């Protein structure tokens, strides 16, 4: 569930791409993508350090079939900032999350902790193969 070297124009397009990977791999129903977009409208899923972690609203949980994480690498970045602010929030790695029950909270915290070190984000953004990303993220569960 990894897309490398993507070129997206908007945060909505990035969220849709991450959500579609979850849908295509049986983690969620198509309606979950709308819940991911709605969540980002309520509260930005930008986490700092060039990452965003879009996930669905509480209402959208009913569309989750199994827990999964998608990764969309956007080397040129996409602006995740709120149109009402001047601050640019450039994102180079988008993690789409579908978590059964409360599993999304654990996934969110593990990814946020891993990505709190900007050098880890740089490695994800520079990865040339899905295997490189998988190997980097395997370390997330070990911490």
Describe the overall structure.
The chain is α/β, with parallel strands linked by helices and 143 residues long. The chain has one domain: 3-Layer(aba) Sandwich (Mannitol-specific EII, Chain A). The protein is 43% helix and 20% strand. The protein has five helices and five strands; from the N terminus they run E-H-H-E-E-E-E-H-H-H. It has a five-stranded mixed β-sheet. Helix 3 (103-115) crosses helix 5. The protein is globular, with a radius of gyration of 14 Å. It starts with a strand and ends with a helix. The model has no long low-confidence stretch (mean pLDDT 91). Residues 1-140 form the PTS EIIA type-2 domain. Keywords: Kinase, Phosphoprotein, Phosphotransferase system, Sugar transport, Transferase, Transport. InterPro entries: PTrfase/Anion_transptr (IPR016152), PTS_EIIA_type-2_dom (IPR002178), Sugar_PTS (IPR050893).
Walk me through the topology.
Blueprint: E1 2-3, H1 11-24, H2 31-42, E2 46-48, E3 51-52, E4 68-79, E5 90-98, H3 103-115, H4 118-126, H5 130-142
Parallel strand pairs: 1-4, 3-5
Antiparallel strand pairs: 2-3, 4-5
Helix pairs in contact: 1-2, 3-5
Descriptive keywords:
Mannitol-specific EII, Chain A, phosphoprotein, five-stranded mixed β-sheet, protein-phosphocysteine-sugar phosphotransferase activity, PTrfase/Anion_transptr, about 140 residues, Sugar_PTS, single chain, alpha/beta
Q: Strand share of the residues?
A: 15-25%
Total number of domains: 1
Q: How helix-rich are the residues, as a percent range?
A: 40-55%
Structural class: alpha/beta
Q: Which stretches are poorly predicted, pLDDT < 50 over at least 5 residues?
A: none
CATH fold label: Mannitol-specific EII, Chain A
Rounded mean pLDDT score? 91
What is the CATH architecture assignment? 3-Layer(aba) Sandwich
Rg, Å, rounded: 14 Å
Roughly how many Å apart are the termini?
A: 22 Å
In DSSP terms (H or I, runs of 4 or more residues), the helix count works out at 5
Q: Helices and strands, in N-to-C order?
A: EHHEEEEHHH
Shape: globular
Oligomer: single chain
Q: What's the arrangement of strands in the largest beta sheet?
A: 1-4-5-3-2
Name the CATH class.
Alpha Beta
Largest sheet: 5 strands, mixed
Number of E-type strands: 5
Protein name: Mannitol-specific phosphotransferase enzyme IIA component
InterPro entries: PTrfase/Anion_transptr, PTS_EIIA_type-2_dom, Sugar_PTS
GO molecular function: kinase activity; protein-phosphocysteine-sugar phosphotransferase activity
GO cellular component, one term: plasma membrane
